[in-house]
Amino acid sequence: MRHLVSVLVQDRPGVLQRIAGLLARRGFNIESLAVGRTHLEGLSRISLVVSGDDAVLEQVEKQLNRLIEVIKVTDHDEPHVERELALVKVSIAGLEERMEVKDIAEAFRARIVDVAKRSIIFELTGDTTKVNNFIEALRPYGLLEVMRTGAVGMSRGEQVLRVREKKAV
Amino acid sequence: MNGARAILKALEMQGVELIFGHPGGTIMPTYDALYDSSIRHVLVRHEQGGIHAATGYARASGRVGVVMATSGPGALNLVTGLQDALMDSTPVVAITGNVPQHLIGTDAFQEADVVGITQPVTKHNMQVRNVNDIPRAIAEAFYIASTGRPGPVLLDFPKDVQLAEFTGSFDVVVDLPGYKPTYKGHPRQIERALEALGKAERPVLMVGGGAQHASAEITELALKTGLPVIPTLMGLGVFPGTHPQCLGMPGMHGSVAANRAIQYADTILAIGLRFDDRVTGKISRFAPHAHTVIHVDIDPAEIGKLVKTSIPVVGDAKWVAAELVKGAKKLNLSKWWAQLEEWKTKYPFAWKPKPYLQSQEVIQAFWEATRGRAVVTSGVGQHQMFVAQFFKFDRPRTWINSGGLGTMGVGLPFAIGAALARPDELVIDFDGDGSFQMTLQELATLKKLNLNVKIVILNNGFLGMVRQWQDLFHGRRYSEVYLADSNPDFAKLAEAYGIPGLTLTDKAQLQDAVKAVLAQPGPVLLDARVYHEEGVFPMIPSGGAAEDMIIENPREAVAGD
Ligand SMILES: Cc1ncc(C[n+]2csc(CCOP(=O)(O)OP(=O)(O)O)c2C)c(N)n1
Fold it and tell me: In a designed cystine with B6, which of B40, B134, B494, B536 is the match (CB 3.0 to 4.6 A)?
């Protein structure tokens, strides 16, 4: 089973290394990991895609929660939005191919961000399946480079990942 | 004041009275400041000795142990001890120096990525880069080390931070939004636990190292309910080992009664333990009849990690045990106890007498002579298991050994730390000839401090535990385990450090030797030359389950002696 996990962390030196190291050491399989700042000062948010059964997911969450900088962990089993950004460079042999590739890109709503004599770079956002399909559709033309950010996600509706209320120790 | 002074002032404010350490270039400003501080420093001869001593101090006292080291080689010598403290949940704060910040990342002399290297072996660590952050960093380190599930925390101070002018405030509040340990177990879960116990026909109470501070509450719970108690290796002393309700420790070298009790139990109440594989054996065959497992632990990540838990209680052992006591009733377990008694009497820990001196009888003689009034440490190996089997621990925090990591060489430094933490107590280090040689340079530290530590080397001339496995599982091919041909004369070695040394070879002299050791004030070393091919039994082979237990040495059962 594939799980998307969001982690809110204090933005301290080495925190990403700590998280990646912890998961690697404990043998959890990370498919992707994306990180960036939030609107709150000193807080970053990480999206992790891990695979495993419920017991694995539970341990991932519990182990992450042990880290001092980790403020909140949640897995998105509820309705959520998930996006990935990909840059795909395809080789183009001739005019005909160029037209075909452009048609494919249009069908996926990918944007052209660079055109050269023998190659095109596309930019695509979408969930992981969409990105996979796009890449597969272009594969026959000759993929030169593929760069993906890994999935980021957010729950739909009211549910928000926020700093825990202060609790007396 | 400079950063170094600020470090010491912040440590003083945490109530630190004692630091174990070894100086060097990058920590020198802090050693300089130590010169004017009220904090006592114990100079160890190797940083590993320092962190183990700090661990022994913490385990014996319940307070935070502190160790200090210089950058690079000094800091790296802490690594084993940090992992040892992590696995046995011991509160330790390690302070290290590092090269000045402008040299960090340049492969400077004695530079090492200490924060990176120690990340997996600490509960938390950090490098303090701003001199004014010192008080907050130290307050956080002590808070993190000593609360929740205790563990080691390392703070790394670049030399320029120690030398910079401090202009900050010591008035700090620890506020870690991501760290809020839960102390109070959920009342509904506690209620469910009591209900389950009330219905149980064959319940057992297992207690681990996380319950050492909850001894009073757990003893009360056991007495009130009549539950059989199984302390793990780390839990010995939580409940009196001589009490009839104590079944002894479980696991690989545990008692038949404890292992069978778990094997047939329908309900397990486990407090402050983590179901280590040395306790469970093959997990899929562990406690096959236990339909109810109640697991009490302060670390939520331990619950359900290995054993399926039906009633999880996240909370402090002391707090939860006290709540359980309130609602607990006397249980009717007479049928269960009849069975337990039978196992207990039929299969006590025992040994076959031999014409030679035996480890078990040496340990037993010391237990009898002290009536158990001692704090005991050990190395790792057969001797450690023999102590766990034959020295009955009646009080908490009196058995300090390396459970989780199984670190050879902890015995002597643990003993030094324990003796400093509990100056009123007699401390005995039962050590192996192999283990002792890993940190024996701390004899110098012991001599200097003149502590009441008795070192008893159970000298079998072998890396005994490895030899036992080779004997049982590798066709008696004794590969690289023989020590006797090159062991030092340990008594003379002690004398060389100015510590009285005795040698015991003859069984008949055992009582006299014990008396002589105990009569001597201050440190003494006894080199007890024990039977060289002893085995530890019972034994559950690695990866086996309770029913695979080998109760006595198959070699002796077949061939005799
Ligand atoms: C630092 C370290 N290295 C290696 C081991 C593996 N090991 C476990 S027990 C043992 C033998 C211990 O020998 P000794 O201290 O003489 O004790 P004995 O088993 O003979 O009582 C060894 C080598 C270990 N536990 N720790």
Answer: B134
The string of pLDDT tens digits covering residues B15-37 is 999 999 999 999 999 999 999 99
> Which is nearest to B430 in space by CA: B508, B500, B343, B367?
B367
Long-range contacts, stretch B512-521, CB < 8 angstroms, 24+ apart? B514/B362, B514/B365, B514/B366, B514/B369, B515/B369, B517/B454, B517/B456, B518/B369, B518/B370, B518/B426, B518/B454, B521/B452
Q: What is this structure's pTM?
A: 0.96
Query: Nearest residue of A to residue B176 by CA position?
Result: A68
Residue A10, SS3 per DSSP: strand
Per-residue model confidence as pLDDT tens digits over B321-379: 999 999 999 999 999 999 999 999 999 999 999 999 999 999 999 999 999 999 999 99
pLDDT, tens digit (0-9, with 9 covering 90-100), for B447-467: 999 999 999 999 999 999 999
Q: Say yes or no for a CB contact (<8 Å) between B301 and A164.
A: no
Residues near ligand 1 (Cβ within 6 A): B 379-383, 406-408, 432-435, 458, 460, 462-466
Instruction: In whole angstroms, give the CA distance from residue B504 to residue B16.
Output: 40
Is the CB of residue A62 less than 8 Å away from at least one CB of chain B?
yes
CB contact under 8 A, B183 and A9: no
* Residue-wise pLDDT tens digits, B109-159: 999 999 999 999 999 999 999 999 999 999 999 999 999 999 999 999 999
Residue linked to tokens 């397990």: B268
Can you give the pLDDT at residue A169?
37
Contacts (Cβ under 8 Å, ≥6 apart) of B308: B293
On chain B, the residues whose CB falls within 8 A of the CB of A58 are 304
Q: Is A67 an interface residue toward B (CB < 8 Å)?
A: yes
Residue B405 Cα: closest atom of ligand 1: 25
Active site residue B346: no
Determine how many CB atoms are found less than 10 A away from the CB of residue A166.
Answer: 9
Model ipTM value: 0.91
Write out the H or E segment, with its range, that includes residue B297. strand B292-297
Q: In this complex, which of A9, A10, A167 lies closest to B180 when CB atoms are compared? A: A167
Instruction: Assign A22 a pLDDT band (cuts: 50, 70, 90).
Output: very high
| Cα distances (Å, whole numbers) of residue B6 to A67, A73, B129, B152, B162 | 27, 36, 14, 21, 8
What whole-number distance in Å separates Cα of residue B464 and Cα of residue B67? Answer: 31
